[in-house]
Amino acid sequence: MIRIFANAAYDFLAVRRWAYVITGVFVLPGLMMLGIRGLNESIEFTGGTLIQVHARDTTMRTATIRSALQTVGLNPEIQTFGAPNEFVIRARIEGATDTGTSTQETRALVEQGLDATFGPEAYEIVRTEAVGPKVGSELRQKALLAILLSFGATLIYLWFRFEWRFGVAAIVATAHDILATVALIGWLDLEVSLVIVAAALTIVGYSLNDTIVVFDRVRENLRKFKRENIYQILNRSVNETLPRTLLTGLSTITATIALLVFGGGVIRGFALVMTFGIVVGTFSSIYIASPVLLAIEQRWPGEDVKGAKTIVARGAPAT
Amino acid sequence: MFSTIKGRLVLLLALVALSAYSLIPRDRTIRLRDADGRMRDTVERRVPLKLGLDLQGGMHLAIEIDESAGPNVDRGDALERVLTVIRSRVDEFGVTEPLIQQVGDDRIVVELAGIVDPARAKQIVERSAFLEFRITDMQQQFANALPAVDRALAEAGVRLDAGAAGAATPTELERLLGTDTTQETAEGDTAAADTSAALDQPGPLSSHLFQGQIPAEFLVLEEQFPSVDSLLHHPVAQRAMPRGLELVWGMEPTSQGGRAYRALYAVERRPIITGEYLSDARATMDQVNNQAVVQFELTRAGGRVFRRETGRHVGDYMAIMLDGRVHRQPPVIRSQIYRSGQIELGSASLQEAQDLALVLRAGALPAPIQIVEERTVGPSLGRDSIAQGRLAAIVAAISVVVLMIGYYRMAGALAVLALGFYGLFTIGGLAMFGATITLPGLAGFALSIGMAVDANVLIFERIREELAGGKTVRLAVDAGFQNALSAIVDSNVTTVLTALFLFQFGTGPVRGFAITLIIGIIASFITAVFVTRTFFLIWLQFGRATKQLSI
Q1: Residue ranges covered by each domain of chain A
Q2: What number of other Cβ atoms are within 10 A of residue B510's Cβ?
Q3: How many residue contacts between A and B have a Cβ separation below 8 Å?
Q4: Which residues does residue A83 pair with via DSSP β-bridges, in sequence order?
Q5: What CA–CA distances, in Å, run from A198 to A193, A276, B433, B490?
Q6: Does the distance separating the beta carbons of B501 and A150 come in below 8 Å?
Q7: In this complex, which of B382, B439, B468 lies closest to A79 when CB atoms are compared?
Q8: The listed CATH number (1.10.3720.10, 3.30.565.10, 3.50.50.60, 1.20.1640.10) that belongs to domain A12-39+136-311
């Protein structure tokens, strides 16, 4: 049988300062870039321009139109409209605010892109119109509210099943992953679409799952190894769950990489955020969640873990 | 009983049959209101799993405000109201994820997924919202006539079809609701006096109605709603109804004691006022009582009518009806109202008050709408992206399978087999909920697949640990499943909790993500702790795994 990291005994907690530094170096500049550049929202949130095209050239397909428009820097949504040679293109120029002029500009850009690939005779623009956002501002507020409330619920559940310290540490680790994802969006200046929102939500789920598996082992080991201190128990738990953490991470990441390689333009953003999220989720459940639990325990020692001994950080080696 | 392999296989088979059953396309009869207001039965083919607009496309309708009767003063406001009405009408269950978008400054585009019959799509959108206020049946004429209706239905041999048997008894429910049972008993007495047969068998209609919290309000179990509705529209029942009364349904199901009910109201046929007299409605917080209220204004002519009617009906309940459905529980008329009145909503939130105000404003739609264009549209992701996505999903699935079998050998193969069942359960569950599959939905599905794989990995790693600790194969397997359980339960419960909040407070695509995630995790839990375990038991029983485990 193949076993990876079967009897691992790494001192993960010893390098926790480094983990904080790595996180800080990645997250803070990313958030700053996002703050300066602003969030690049997709047409679903901002609205944009709708252009209906009648194709005379039979080689015009959603795929070929998409690549033609990508050469002029547009990231359009393309659907067939009634007949197979009739298309609706929804596009927006990045950062455009004034809808009146941007409608004309978008049309000009679309024409430029289509002319370059198919020639001006190949198609005809039937109409051009400004369109409102598909999802209103209420989606944004409600999604944020939903995430915050679900954090609250998670906290209460973990408090009930484990102890409040575990709940707080799990929330911190998950919040870390959300911030890191937002930072990634900042670094790459990714366009935020509904699909990206879905990917971010998926990361929340994955990361929480990953962290809880480790904490479950911590709870078990607290009962089992009463002579060890919290530092040793945390390290032991992370090491014992390491094969599972890596294997699950590996199988999930294989799937997201397949999406990244074969998924094509629209799925690629989703797959990229997902792949990143798995890496970050795995990182945080090893290097962030447990150190945060240790830090909380050192700051507010005492109290019982349900049915277990007091977690007291006695004799933790100096780091 | 499910501790034996045989028992487990029976349960597994039952789950498979249930999932498969929900995936079989079948015809169902639905009632539609005709253009002239009559109800008519249509047979519609129910497709078990609809793909969303982004994956499959659907019906595209462009709507404009009909200005043939004269131009509109405030077109922007009118358009916004139309948008609201259409959104509430189309997105009735919140899982179909339609596109409703303003185009230009005078048009609304509505796209509906999976609807192939353009006439049906138009019908959903085109009916203009019709608002009316009606007084509920204060004399309990309907309650008194119920025995006669029952008798008429029983004589005609009409019965509710399947599903009626498992209903809660009225007394059980009334205890739940804490309402008095006097009316129900009175009914029972009359029925008993009239026909002795009614003693043994409760009436076809009354046995499905439970007394609600206010006069003339009845509750029907949500799952019986369609069949009771067709019962009510039976000609025999219609003839036995008291003159001047009508039975109308509540707009949304309510839940009480963990079950979903649909309210049914007996109201006067004649409205005391209709939406055309309503000029405005606003939601505010009442500072004194700290409760949400909706203030509404009537036109001058409306005020005259309303003063006369409310004067006669002080103390009565007034149903607010939109398109023939009662919106919220009817409020009581406290005093005579002239041109402006207010509806107190008790403990309701400001958001609910705003919704009601919108219903009132939308019902007072200043102009009719017309459909100017209808087309079928392709998937909004584009066919190219979908083909690529499909390929990517297949590659992803194969790589997970290779990894699982490569690392865990025979145990991995069993897990992969169990994952096949997981897929079936999830898709069956989605079909049961009538969910529309969209790309965010598929993301939720992907996450739950990840968690299903993870649950198996957790169990297998645990079994390996137990084996390494020196346990025999059988003991190690038992201990592995047992000890991995708490981690699986905790991570699944937390994720479902998160998803529940996303479903409750999210909109559109966020809800789609949440619903697939919830169903997927339930399926994944069943798969890991039950299906995989069953396979292991069979393997240990009949295979050669008792000495050496291929894991």
Answers
A1: 12-39+136-311, 48-131
A2: 24
A3: 243
A4: A81
A5: 9, 14, 20, 23
A6: yes
A7: B382
A8: 1.20.1640.10
Among B233, B268, B303, identify where a domain stops. B268
* Residue B509 belongs to domain spanning: 5-23+382-542
B432-487 pLDDT, tens digit each:
887 788 888 888 888 888 888 889 999 999 999 898 888 888 899 999 999 999 98
Question: Is B192 a member of any domain?
Answer: yes
Cβ within 8 Å, pair A270-B508:
no
Nearest CA among B251, B308, B242 for reference residue B269: B242
Of A62, A251, A274, the CB nearest to B404: A251
DSSP string, B387-398: HHHHHHHHHHHH
Instruction: Give the ipTM of the model, two decimals please.
Output: 0.82
What's the pLDDT tens digit per position in A216-252? 999 899 888 888 888 899 999 999 999 999 988 988 8
Q: Taking 90 as the threshold, does the pLDDT of residue A214 lie above it?
A: yes
Among A181, A201, A203, A272, the strongest candidate for a mutation testing the B interface, having the largest count of B CBs within 10 A, is: A201
| B338 shares a domain with B465 | no
Closest CB to A132: pick one of B101, B391, B454. Answer: B101
Domain boundary at B303, B329, B363, which?
Answer: B363
**Do A247 and B461 lie within an 8 Å CB cutoff?**
yes
Same domain as B285, residue B388: no
pLDDT value of position B191: 37
B312 and B417 assigned to the same domain: no
Integer Cα distance of B463 and B540 in angstroms: 14
Residue B337 lies in a domain: yes
Q: Which chain A residue shows the shortest CA-CA distance from B509?
A: A194
Q: In whole angstroms, what separates CA B66 from the centre of its chain?
A: 32
pLDDT computed for residue B482 by the predictor: 92
Verify whether the Cβ–Cβ distance B388 to A252 is below 8 Å. Answer: no
B493: DSSP letter: H
Q: Which pLDDT does position B484 carry in this prediction?
A: 92
What is the fold of A48-131? Answer: Alpha-Beta Plaits (3.30.70)
In chain B, which residues have pLDDT < 70?
Answer: 1-2, 27-47, 68-75, 81, 84-85, 88-96, 115-117, 120, 123-130, 159-202, 362-368, 544-547
Q: Say if residues B44 and B26 touch (Cβ distance below 8 Å).
A: no
State the pTM of this model.
0.68
Please tell me the distance in Å from B456's CA to the nearest CA on chain A: 10
How close B101 comes to chain A (CA, Å)?
A: 6
Picking from A77, A135, A212 by the largest number of B CB atoms within 10 A of its own CB, the best residue to mutate is A212
